[in-house]
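Why does residue order matter? Because the sequence determines the fold. Keep that principle in mind as you read this record.
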Amino acid sequence: MGDRRMFAKAIVQSSRFLKMPVSSRELYFQMGMVADDDGVVEAWNVMQITKANEDDLRVLVSKGFVQILDNDELIAYLTDWETNNTIRADRYHEGQYKALKIRVLEMLRPLDNQLTTNCQPSDNQMATEVKLSKDKLSKDKLSKEKEKPVRHQYGEYKHVRLSDAEYERLVGKFGEAKVKEYIQKADEYCQIHGKTYSDYNLTIQNWIKNEVNRSKAKNNSDGNMEGWK
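Structure:
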């Protein structure tokens, strides 16, 4: 990923941009700085750094500066990326979310195509077609969101994200006290090191299992030493 990013004056000095709250504008700049070479960024991580909230992100989305690619993980695409940045082919590094970006933008393309047709529809007809397309897109989006489990924030710094089912499974396997202990450890580790995990459920399971394995190995070692006394 490149270490230099640019912002076009036509974008960041436009009235559309300047009318947004300062916190939304700051979030946009920070997202632009850490985005990969495809203009995709994990918005949640940037929001933690800038202390921005989801309302700031919603403003960017409503104004058309950002397109959310994944609602669950808050993966976002900066829609004016190619206007802001031109990256030479020999310096380009494909981002891990490129396929997701292409898939989502292609899903949105049929809506744009509704506005460009060979015939000349009336204003009412065009408005109806656009509304129907948007309604269909919203229903598809809601349907997909329903399929994804809601993840709640845990820990003092709210880094750990688990669904109700994931939390219950962890408690069933390891007990609530142990799970709370490792949620706190994971939360503090992320806060100190600026680290994030895509799957906190799996991370916590692995940490607890590693502790159990170390404890067993230590007990075996102590037992062997007793035999030599």
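The chain has two domains: 9-120+140-147, 151-228.
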